[in-house]
Amino acid sequence: MSSGRQVQHSLAFRVMRLCRPSFHSETPLRFDPCDLIAGEDLFDDAVAASNLPRLLSNHTLTSPKSTDSSDLTYRSRFLLHDPSDAIGLPGLLILPQAFGAIYLGETFCSYISINNSSNFEVREVVIKAEIQTERQRILLLDTSKSPVESIRAGGRYDFIVEHDVKELGAHTLVCTALYNDGDGERKYLPQFFKFIVANPLSVRTKVRVVKEMTFLEACIENHTKSNLYMDQVDFEPAPHWSATILKADGHHSEDSALDRDIFKPPVLIKSGGGIQNYLYQLKSSSQGSAPVKVEGSNILGKLQITWRTNLGEPGRLQTQQILGNPIARKEIDLQVVEVPSVIMLEKPFLVHLNLNNQTDRTLGPLRYGCPKVMLLRTRL
Amino acid sequence: MDAVEQSEDQQTSAITGGIGALSLSSTDDPLTSQFGTLNDLCYELSSLQDLASRGSWRSILDKVARARKLSLLSKPHEHLTYLSYNVLALTKLRRFAEAAAELDSLDDGLDSSSYLYESYPHHYPNGSGSMVPFVLRWLHAELPSKLGKRQETLDRFYGLLDLVRTKLNDKLSKGASVSAGLWRKRQVFVINSIISHHLSHKEFSVCLDLMKDLISLRGDTEDQNPVLLSKLGYIQMQYGDLEGAKATFDKIEGLVKEKADDVEMKNLVSRNKALVYLVAKDYVSAVREYEECMERDASDVVAINNKALCLMYLRELSGSISVLESALERVPTVALNETLVVNLCSMYELAYVNHSDIKRTLSNWIARVAPDDFDTSCTRI
User: Fold this and answer.
1) Of A40, A92, A137, B349, which residue is 20 to 30 A from B10 by alpha carbon distance?
2) How many whole angstroms separate alpha carbon A259 and alpha carbon A276?
3) Are B8 and B122 in contact (CB under 8 A)?
4) Up-side HSE of residue B323: CA atoms within 13 Å toward CB?
5) Cβ within 8 Å, pair A69-B331
6) Chain B residues closer than 8 Å to A65 by CB
7) Which of A282, A196, A214, A201 is nearest to A243 (CA)?
8) How would you class B380 by CB atoms within 10 Å of its CB: exposed for 0-12, middle for 13-18, buried for 19 or more?
9) C-alpha–C-alpha distance, residues A80 and A67, integer Å
10) What are phi and psi of B7, to 5 degrees?
11) Chain centroid to CA A42: how far?
12) From the list A16, A29, A85, which residue is nearest B91 (CB)?
């Protein structure tokens, strides 16, 4: 945070990154009273067992229903109400506690509050918020057309800004306020909040051609500090290509009697170097029909990736164009159509050949022959 | 603990000490039963339990120290019960090294024959089995993680799960149905604790597998616990599977339809709905759901806390602060929890340039009202 050098400012910017909240989770120290008041095997005894209901009816042993607001104890910090309370996930949300890391493809969201901590009203406040990167300045908010008329002493003006992060490296959130202070003096307050945008993923691809079928292997590696839930990983093929994703056989645990819907195993890539592999089979739709072959490289398509972190915080990236192997251009295609299965030495035989000119220009002249050297080498 | 070293005199005085029928008669007359009230179970147990309910853990330490100093405890199991409250109090007060040391002072660990009823036939003529309160085993497993040895805790909990399952099978085969019921609950308790540890380390796949085990323990789909299933939904939301979470919440809504009059269940369904709105960034609808919850139950602190957060995302910082402040004023014993205070302090830091004053006011109020185990570091002063 910077402040004016000798200028005393009435206003100050307070900034809080507003990514999605998280669920609070921690192992609670809450118990079933039976585990505390008696030995673990005491109720093996039939007499003890028969007294258990009466023992438990003691008021200090039951966690109060929350609707009983007259209860003034802290029993709910000590006794379990529902057994699942021991998981320690009450559903309480907690605000982001630190700025955290920010990655390409995410949305930067921030709560910005401009506070008047002086004893005087300030007037005609022109507020601007911009993101400055190496390449550009992006305006997020500008109240010049309708300045905030006044912010009273001790008052605030709040706003929330959002920006889709599309560049790597150093970013600065620049907040400025131009205002008339209590003395009528027009003052200018700039404040700068810096952050760095890093690369969340790397994608390595391999293209293999096996018997005229093209396969694309993609390996996604997670460089972030969180586990990434892969919401969508789609390969978008280039024109004249179609793609099908190939998946391994399901794990045995998926065939349980329980609802498949709620137990679909998630694709979660572990933080700090975890990987996930994807395999696609690609078909060129121009195979068979009159081909329009592109010289040189072969564009297959690109991967669209959407991931999510806490409470569904999304991030989106797409890869650059993925290239296949350059097509070997064949000008002439020679095919043997028919050759006799038995050939007698020193007797002529008929061979049927098919010759295709695959270019769009006339080629020639055609010369053919059998080198004598080769005939002599033929063995039967 | 020196239960075995009790002198002959002390044992005799315990037997004739006049605390109910003691162990000399095996009558099941409720008036003279040794299990009728908390104080029959153990010397001044009712008072210990009362102090624990108020969060007066320092008073518990004093009471245990006094009982030991003045030799007020006569029976072996009473020493163990007092030790349990002591270790628990130390743990609650975050004095983890002392708690672990106290546990380590037990001869030969928790499975020693010193802690079996049958080792003291004059105290417990028909007694058999372990007199160790189960909480001691749980604390023995949990404490290493508080001292930085997380793997040790996981190993102990998985070992404890094994022990619990063995005990459960044993009770079932003996036909001790009440005891079996308790061991069945302990199985669930230990699995839940294991899940909480994996959750805190974001090991979500393991959590899902364990949740699946818990849910299938329950068997029939109609008999499922909506509260447990909701936790599954929260886990799914936490790692980002919004569709999975929605499917889980829909399932819960179907289950709860029959229990239409139960305010707790109604609020559970509403809060789950609010979360679905929240992740879709429809904060207005989320606030509406939370307000319905608060109308049905003014001390639904989860609804209160989460509503305040929604107001923040709606740019209403003042509104969010007042929701939390008013809850602390109205229903302090429910609202005073560390998460709510952390959120309120984050809001103060944003709203006030000089936020230390207002945080100090809050901190002073907390000092007057809070239980001993309240973690004051949450105010970040």
Assistant:
1) A40
2) 25
3) no
4) 27
5) yes
6) 264
7) A282
8) middle
9) 16
10) -75, 160
11) 53
12) A29
Contact A115 B36 (CB under 8 A): no
pLDDT digits (tens, 9 = 90+) for A168-205: 999 999 999 999 998 889 999 999 999 999 999 999 99
Q: Does B32 touch chain A (CB under 8 A)?
A: no
Inter-chain contact A44–B242, Cβ cutoff 8 Å? no
Length of chain B: 381
Residue type, B266: K
Which amino acid, residue A40? E
Residue B18's contacts (CB-CB under 8 Å, 6 or more residues apart) are none
> Could you give phi then psi for residue A309, rounded to 5 degrees?
-120, -145
Q: Comparing C-alpha atoms, which of A87, A73, A102 is closest to residue A25?
A: A87
Query: Hey, what are A136's tokens?
Result: 């550009």
Amino acid present at A134: E
Asked if A338 contacts A352 with a C-beta cutoff of 8 angstroms, the reply is: yes
Mean pLDDT by 10 residues, chain B (381 residues): 42 38 43 75 93 96 96 94 97 98 90 93 90 97 97 97 96 93 96 97 94 84 86 96 95 84 92 98 98 96 98 97 97 94 97 93 95 94 81
Among left, alpha and beta (phi > 0; psi -120 to 50; other), residue B281 is left
Nearest CA in chain A to B335: A74
Mean pLDDT, residues A71-95: 93
